[in-house]
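Lab channel / #folding
Pinned by the channel admin:
"Please post every new chain as: sequence first, then the structure tokens as a reply. Keep commentary short and put observations after the output so the thread stays searchable."

First post following the new format, from NK:
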Amino acid sequence: METKLTYPVQVGQKIQMLHKDDMLAWWVDSGATSHVCKYLKWFEEFEPLEDGSVLRMEIVATEPIKGVGKVRLVFTCGKHLLLDN
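Reply from TO:
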């Protein structure tokens, strides 16, 4: 039996308005269990998913999850953070 995953994402109105026109902005949620990246070129490693998993946003919108992998964030202070889902 195949299991399809749905990941809920809640984004506060303030955050949406702050970054509405910024194509490179990240949604910051320090308690997140999953991370979302819309640019394939940012992945150091990428494994395609074709199991029907979807990302659910504010209960009204869904997007298919196209894959999982690793994305490295480089901060202005020089520190690196590797996100691995």
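NK: The first strand starts at residue 6 and ends at 9.
TO: also worth noting, Residues 5-20 have pLDDT under 50 and may be disordered.
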